[in-house]
Amino acid sequence: MKKFIVVLMLCACTSVTYAQWGEEEMAEKPSFRDRIFTGGGLGASFSSYYNFISVSPLVGITLTSRLATGVQFTYRYSQYKTYTPKITTNDYGVSPFVRFSVIGPLFLHAEYEYLNYEYPYTGGGSDTNRLGFSSFMAGGGLFQPVGRRAGLYLLALYNFSYGPNSPYDSPLVLRAGITAGF
C-alpha cells in the first residue's frame, strides 16, 4: 500500500502542464509569436509526514511542425514534519528540452535537467545539505489534442544519470497532464 501511495504522490508531484503543440500544419512562414508557446506545471502533496509544493513554468518555440524545443524552470518547497523542529527545504532547477513528433499522437522527448536540491542532514537535527545534480532524461509519450488549443499527455522518461546522489527515488520519471495554449 505504501508503494502505491508513493507512486500516486510521484505522479501528482511530477504532473506538468505543457503548452499545446501538435501535428497541425504550420503556415508556410508562421510569425515568431505564433511559434512561441508557454505553459508550466503545479504539483502538490500533503501528508502527516511531508508537504511538497512545486511550480514549473516553461517557454518554448516550435521549430517545425514536428520539432519543438524550450526550457522549463523548477522551484520546489518541501517541509519534513518528522523532524523536531520541522525542516523546510527549497530546490530550484532548469531543464532545456526537445520534443519530436514521431507519428500520430506519439512523440519522443529528451531533456537535460540541472537541479540544485536541499535535503535533511542524515546526522539528525535541523541541518540540511545542498547538492547540485545533473540529469539526462529521455523517453516518449502520447499527446491527445482536445480542441485546437488544449490536450492531454502521458510521458515516461528514463533518467540515465540516476545514482546514489540522485534527488529522485527511481530512474523512471512519469508525467501526466493537461495542456493549454496561450
- CA-atom Rg in angstroms: 18 Å
Distance between the termini: 39 Å
Low-confidence stretches: 1-23
Q: Tell me how many strands there are.
A: 8
Major sheet description = 8 strands, antiparallel
The proportion of strand residues reads: over 45%
- The quaternary state of the protein chains shown equals single chain
Series of secondary-structure elements, N-terminal to C-terminal: HHEEEEEEEE
User: Rough shape?
Assistant: elongated
Mean pLDDT figure: 79
For the largest beta sheet, what order do the strands appear in spatially?
1-2-3-4-5-6-7-8
Helix/sheet category: mainly beta
Number of domains: 1
Name the helicity range.
under 10%
Q: Please, how many helices? A: 2
Notes on the structure:
With 182 residues, the protein is mainly beta. It has one domain (2-180). The protein contains 2 helices and 8 strands. It has helices at 2-14, 32-35, and strands at residues 36-46, 50-62, 67-80, 87-103, 106-120, 128-145, 150-159, 172-180. It has an 8-stranded antiparallel beta sheet. Strand 1 (36-46) and strand 2 form a beta hairpin. The radius of gyration is 18 Å and the shape is elongated. The protein starts with a helix and ends with a strand. The model is unreliable at 1-23 (pLDDT under 50).
